[in-house]
Specification:
This protein has about 50 residues and is an alpha+beta fold. The protein is built from one helix and two strands; from the N terminus they run E-E-H. The longest helix has 11 residues.
Length: about 50
């Protein structure tokens, strides 16, 4: 699991539908990009596929 810590100004997009965003600084973005290919939403073939 990756744990990040940073400060950001929250951006409120009023939508529709409304969302809240936090811009991620470049160093933390690089960390996210580095592991993104290994990330899953839990839908994985238990046989390893």
């Amino acid at each position: 699991m990756l744990t990040l810590s940073f400060e950001a100004k929250i951006i409120h997009w009023k939508g529709p539908p409304p969302f809240f965003f936090a811009p991620v600084p470049a160093p933390q973005s690089a960390e996210i990009r580095g592991i993104a290919k290994f990330a899953t939403y839990g839908w994985r073939d238990p046989r390893g596929g």
